[in-house]
Amino acid sequence: MSTLVVVGAQWGDEGKGKVTDVLAAQAQVVARFAGGNNAGHTLVVEGKKIVTHLVPSGCTYPGTACVLGAGMVIDPEVFQDEVATLRKQGLLPGDELRVSLDAHVIFPFHRELDGVREDAQAASGKAIGTTRRGIGPAYEAKAARRGIKIRDLFEPEALRERLVRAASVLDPEFARLGSEVRVQIEANLEAAKAWAQWLRPMVCDAGEVIAEALQRKERVLFEGAQGAMLDLDHGTYPYVTSSPTTAGGVCTGLGVGPTVIDEVWGITKAYTTRVGAGPFPTKLDGDAAHRLREAGGEYGATTGRPRDVGWLDLPALRYAARLNGMTGLCVTKLDVLAMLPEVQICRRYRDGVKPGVDRLEAAVPELERLEGWGDASWAAGLSEIRRLEDLPAPVRAYLDLVAEAVEVPIALVSLGPDRDQTIVLRAPF
Ligand code: IMP
After folding, report:
1. Poorest-confidence range of 39-53, 64-78, 318-332?
2. Cα–Cα nearest to 328, from 253, 412, 216
3. Of 8, 373, 408, 426, which one is least surrounded by beta carbons within 10 A?
4. pLDDT at 47 over 90
5. What's 151's domain CATH number?
6. Residues 399, 291: one domain?
7. Residue 182 covered by a domain
8. Ligand 1 atom 20: the closest Cα is on which residue?
C-alpha cells in the first residue's frame, strides 16, 4: 500500500490535522486536494501549538513534500504569512512546498464579496455562516470560467484581462449590495507581481509530482479539508462549502486517477460539532452544550466562532462512510467525551428519515444513553492510555458500537491533542 486518503467524516473540525500529522511521519508526500484557508488544522508537537490553514499537515517533517493541488483556492497573502510563521518555527526549511499552477487565486475582492454577501444575507436571516475568506466567490468564478489561476499570475497581460472581466461582473454586484468596494485592477496587478516572484520556486503540475513520487515507490498521504456533510454535492446543501470534501475530490483536485487510491480513512470526533448555519440533528442546547463546548475547546481554529455541539450521529457517519468508500475510521476526542456526566448517541432518526434521501432538516434523532460513562475514576487518566486493551470497558464498547453501526473498522483512536496521545490500530500504508 502506498497511498492513503484522510478525510473528515462529519462537518469539519474532526481532528484531521492531528491525525494527518501523526500519519505523515510515514509519508514522503502530503497533498491537499480542495478547499482553502477556510480550513484550520491545529497540530500540537511536543507541546507546541502549530495552526495551518493552507499548508498540508506534513509540514512538521522537514523534507516531506507538501503539495497544494489544482482543486484548492489559494489566498497568496494568507499563504505567504502562514509560510513565514511556519519558517519562524523552524519548519519548511527546504523546498518542501509545491503549488499547482492550476489552483485558483483568492483575491482581496473575493474576501470582501464573501463578507458583504454574508452581511446582506444575515439581514434576512439566510446567512450560510461562511468563514468570510473568499472561498465561495473564488470557486464560483472558477465554475463560471472567469476565475484566475496561479499560472495567470505569471502572465501580466492575460491577468489584466482576467481582472477586467472580474470587475465587469463583481463591481455591479458590490454596488447592488450597497458596498463601496470595487475590483482594483492596478493594485491587484502590482500585488500579483510580488506573489508570482515568491511563488515561482514552488509552482508545478501537482499530478506529475504525485505520479513521480509513486513511481519512486514513495508513500503519499492525501489530506482532505472540512468534512463529508459540508461537501458541495453530498452535504447539507446550501449549508456547505464550495468544494468536494470527500475522497472522490482527490482525483479531480490533484490530477490523479482513482486507481492510485489504496485506503480511505475517515475522521470523526467521539461527538459531533458544526460551525455556521444548517441542519444538525443531534445538536445540544443549554448547559449540556456549554459543558461539551468547554470540555472540548470547541471554538473555530480559523474564525474563533463557538461551535455548535451534539452527540455522535451514526446515520450521518454511516452516510459519510459510504460517500468516501471508507476503509478505516479514526475516532478523536474520546478524552473529552469522558469528561461529561453522561453520554448519549444517535443510532437512527425517527420515522426512517435517511441521509442522502431525506433532507437532514427533517431528521429527529432517537437518542440512547450509554452506561458506564461519567465516571471520574477513569476519565482523567484516559489520555495516558496507549493500548486498546487498556481502555476502560465503556470506551471499548463505544468503539465497537460505532464500528458495527458504520460497518468500518476502527483504525486509530485519539485521546488528546498531542501526537503521542494516539493509538494506531492498523498500518496506514
Ligand atoms: P466557506 O467554506 O467559508 O464558504 O463556509 C461554508 C460553510 O462551511 C460554513 O458553514 C463554514 O462554517 C463551513 N466550514 C468551512 N470550512 C470549515 C472548516 O474547516 N471546519 C468547519 N466548518 C467549515
Report:
1. 39-53
2. 412
3. 426
4. no
5. 1.10.300.10
6. yes
7. yes
8. 12
- Give the closest residue (by CA) to ligand 1 atom 8: 241
Model confidence pLDDT, tens digit, residues 278-290: 999 999 999 999 9
- The answer on 159 and 17 residing in a single domain is no
* Distance of CA 340 from the midpoint of ligand 1 (Å): 27
Determine whether the shortest distance from the Cβ of 136 to ligand 1 is under 6 A. yes
Q: Do 310 and 419 reside in the same domain of the chain?
A: yes
The arithmetic mean of pLDDT across residues 238-256, rounded, is 98
Domain that includes residue 125, residue range: 104-198
- CA 42 – CA 21 distance, rounded (Å): 10
Pocket test for ligand 1, best of 111, 275, 302 (most atoms within 8 A of CB): 275
> Is the Cβ atom of 39 under 6 angstroms away from ligand 1?
yes
Same domain, 219 and 285: no
| 302, pLDDT greater than 80 | no
pLDDT tens-digit readout, 121-156: 988 888 899 999 999 999 999 999 999 999 999 999
**Residues 325 and 342 grouped into a single domain:** yes
Cα separation of the two ends of the chain: 5
108 vs 175: CA distance, rounded Å: 16
* Number of domains comprising the chain: 3
Active site (catalytic) residues:
13, 41
Residue 365 has pLDDT above 90, yes or no: yes
- The three-point CA angle 85-219-102 to 5° equals 60
User: Do residues 218 and 178 both lie within one domain?
Assistant: no
The answer, yes or no, to whether any atom of ligand 1 lies below 6 A from the CB of 242, is yes
User: Can you tell me the distance from the alpha carbon of 115 to that of 129, in angstroms, rounded to the nearest whole number?
Assistant: 10
Question: Per-residue pLDDT averaged across 25-53, rounded?
Answer: 91
Quick check: CB of 69 below 6 Å from ligand 1?
no
Cβ atoms of 13 and 275 closer than 8 Å: yes
Q: Are residues 233 and 372 in the same domain?
A: no
C-alpha of residue 276 to centroid of ligand 1, in Å: 7
Answer yes or no: do 88 and 208 share one domain.
Answer: yes
- Is residue 429 situated within a structural domain? no
